[in-house]
Structure formats: C-alpha cells, structure tokens
Amino acid sequence: MEQATQPTTATAPPEADEPRPPGPTLKQAHAVAGVIISQLTTSPRSVDTKREITGEHSVTIFWSGDVSGVRALAAWRGAAWKLVPSDTSAATYAETRLRIDGVEVWAWALLTREEAAAAERLLTADQATTPTDHAPAAEPTAVPVPLGESVVALVPSDDPDTIAFAPADVEPGHMVVLAPAKVRADGDR
C-alpha cells in the first residue's frame, strides 16, 4: 500500500450554492427603524433590527400592554392590525406585519385579557371604518377643522412649495405624519 507523498489537489472546484440576493441590509433596516421612530407618538419598549435566517435584515417594534402604537403604525402605512391569542391563552398579541422600503417590519404588543378586550373594541371600530371593497377611492375633499381640534397644525415654511406639519395636542397613541418635501425637476429639495 502506497501513501501519497504529495498533497492532492481537487481537479474541479467544490460545488457552491448560488449566491442569494442579500435582501435589505442592516443599514436599510436601521434607516427604516429611524423613519418609524420619527413618526411615533408613543414610545415603544424596544426597537430592534435583526438578521433573519434568509440573510435579510428586519425591524421589530414592541410595546408592552399598549395597542395604540401598533394601531397607529398600521394606520400610518394603511395596513391592517390584528389580535392573536398566545399559545397559553394567558395573553393576546396585537400585531401588524408590513414592509417599508423593502424591509420587513413586525410591530407587536403583549396584552392582558383586559387590555385585549379593549383592543378588540378598537379593532372592531377600525374594521368598521376601513373600506371593504378595493375600488379606488374618490379624491378626498378637504374639510376645514378648527386648529384646536386638529391633530396637526400647519407650520409656515420659507419655501412656498413646501408644506410642513407639526404636532398639536396629539392624543396618546396617535401619530403625526410628515409630508415629504416636494422634489423639483432638478432633483433638489
């Protein structure tokens, strides 16, 4: 029996898995988390970015016992939220799952039975006011609202093409959405 005195080399490279698209990067997930945080009026208990098994990064937002943040985030993005019983039935999760700029976002709250009962009433009210058909909605008409009753206030700007909004007596759990700056033809804001 002879032993090889020289190292053997493979004649063909080992098979490699096809590279997968990496999906959203950590920087993209972090940027989305920053956008979300800037929109919130209730402070979550935690905002996390994580790398999924698939390699893409995602954002998780958690409120403990407060459905208002989940509800406001869903409303801001035009998404639905729902109640999901826990495996032990000792608590209920309020959650919304959505994608913002390609990044998967899971916002959730853990609710006691009493909090879940109150959240169920809010969910029923939200579903009753959400249009059930998918027909395009008519252009909304502006209804004047006295500033003291409005959740937003018009803030004057130096740029006549830009309208900015700022909070004015915002109820807990509500969110103020900032209008994006208008982009001119030359690309400047």
Set out the fold topology.
Elements: H1 26-39, E1 46-51, E2 57-64, H2 67-77, E3 82-85, E4 92-100, E5 103-111, H3 113-129, E6 152-155, E7 164-167
Parallel strand pairs: 2-5
Antiparallel strand pairs: 1-2, 3-4, 4-5, 6-7
Can you give keywords for this protein?
189 residues, alpha+beta, 22% helix, 3 helices, five-stranded mixed sheet, two-stranded antiparallel ribbon
Overview of this protein structure:
This protein has helices spanning 26-39, 67-77, 113-129, and strands at 46-51, 57-64, 82-85, 92-100, 103-111, 152-155, 164-167. The radius of gyration is 24 Å and the shape is elongated. Mean pLDDT is 73; it is low at 132-142, 145-157, 163-168 and 178-185. It is α+β, with helices and mostly antiparallel strands. The strands form two sheets. Strands 1-2-5-4-3 form a five-stranded mixed β-sheet. A two-stranded antiparallel sheet has the order 6-7. The protein has three helices and seven strands, in the order H-E-E-H-E-E-E-H-E-E. A hairpin with a 5-residue loop joins strand 1 (46-51) and strand 2 (57-64). Helices cover 22% and strands 23% of the residues.
Structure at a glance:
It contains three helices and seven strands, in the order αββαβββαββ. It is an alpha+beta fold.
Could you tell me the number of beta strands? 7
SS-derived structural category: alpha+beta
Order of helices and strands: HEEHEEEHEE
Q: Strands across the major sheet, in which order?
A: 1-2-5-4-3
Low-pLDDT stretches are: 132-142, 145-157, 163-168, 178-185
What distance separates the N and C termini? Answer: 78 Å
In percent, how much strand structure appears in the residues? 15-25%
How is the main sheet built? 5 strands, mixed
**Helix tally?**
3
Q: Approximately how much helix is present in the residues? A: 10-25%
Let me know the average pLDDT: 73
CA radius of gyration is: 24 Å
Overall shape: elongated
